[in-house]
Design a protein that fits this description.
The chain has 335 residues and is mainly β. It contains 4 helices and 27 strands. It folds into 2 domains: 2-47 and 141-333, Thrombin, subunit H; 57-133, PDZ domain (Pdz3 Domain, Roll). 47% of the residues are buried.
């Protein structure tokens, strides 16, 4: 089993929250409190510090050195502080190294959710005269998921349905809260033993929504200045009303419009505390042909049964991409 992490994109990818075409959406509860999701969503998130992508060599005055490697830093580590002073950006780290004057510094590093202190002796680069530790780093990440619902009255939305984490399982923070239109331009199909992924592009003329919060059940925010006149309305149903059998998910796997795909609910677990309230199986041959089943970027896809929104897709089984887990909608709306 593999968690559908917030997909870190090589391209800048953002929100595809386009009104549904009538030909692709059938759920339409008259007077429903929520707009049904299914739009591909992307956000720019902060890594919570300077995240190490790779280790490198410093051409120092005394010869080539690899300070970070010598100190035991690893790719995936997130540098959160230098000598007790918080680091949020690449600039913060560079400023801290400039202040050190070549003396040993103590880095506070987050690794797999745990904090540790690492002592590093910076090297003075021969060409620039700057102090460096030999790391390639980033401080922001972009990725895609799917919007699950939008409250019709307030415009507030919920997306993803699971913890927003990086490759090291570190919780991410909101960096740039703007959310943009996007288009899905391709799919890396899932296969047994390998999770697939959606690929998309920003259409960033102006933001259509704003992100406000990330937590263990997903990412939340608010739509502003957006036309919902053609969007389907729907009510929610508690887990107690969910049953084993046929259901539907709404996902965008091509372009900017979500479509309905058939699934089967194989298990309902109201008491699960890990956001795994459903076991689902994709039965729609078209979706299986296009994606192989559930792929990264589809997390948050709404699950509808008997005309009501009951949950969202959250995980894929790595040994069978047609199967996965889902979270009950009440848990998301509770946030």
């Amino acid at each position: 089993m593999r968690k559908l992490k917030f997909y870190i994109a090589a391209l800048a990818i953002a929100l595809c929250c386009v009104c549904f075409g009538q030909q692709t959406v059938t759920a339409d509860a008259a007077g429903g409190k929520y707009y049904l999701g299914g739009m591909t969503a992307g956000f720019m998130l902060g890594a919570g510090g300077a995240q190490v992508i790779d280790l490198s060599e410093v051409n120092a005055e005394e010869g080539a050195r690899r300070p970070a490697e010598e100190a035991g830093l690893k790719a995936g580590d997130c540098i959160c502080a230098v000598d007790g002073i918080a680091v949020k950006t690449i600039k913060d780290l560079n400023d801290a190294l400039a202040r050190c004057g070549g003396k040993e510094v103590v880095l506070t590093v987050k690794r797999a959710g745990e904090n540790a202190e690492v002592r590093v002796l910076p090297a003075k680069e021969k060409k620039s005269g700057k102090y460096k530790i030999g790391v390639l780093i980033r401080d922001t990440l972009s990725g895609i998921g799917t919007v699950t619902y939008i409250d019709r009255e307030s415009g507030r939305f919920g997306a993803l349905g699971h913890k927003v984490a990086d490759e090291g399982n570190n919780m991410l923070e909101i960096s740039d809260n703007k959310v943009y239109l996007c288009s899905i331009v391709g799919v890396n199909k899932g296969a047994r033993g390998r999770a697939g992924e959606l690929r998309g592009l920003f259409l960033n003329d102006k933001p259509i929504a704003y992100a406000e919060k990330v937590c263990s059940t997903g990412l939340y925010g608010k739509f502003e200045a957006y036309d919902f006149s053609h969007c389907a309305s729907i009510d929610i149903a508690p887990l107690a009303e969910a049953t084993i059998g046929k259901a539907t998910i709404y996902s965008t796997v091509d372009g900017t419009y979500p479509q309905a795909y058939d699934i089967a609910i194989a298990k309902v677990d109201e008491g699960n505390r890990e956001n795994k309230n459903f076991v689902i199986k994709v039965t729609d041959e078209k979706l299986i042909e296009e994606t192989g089943g559930i792929v990264q970027g589809m997390s948050g896809s709404p699950i509808v049964q008997n005309g009501k929104l009951i949950g969202a897709v959250t995980h894929v089984f790595i040994n069978d991409p047609t199967r996965g887990y889902g979270i009950g909608i009440e848990k998301m709306i509770g946030e």
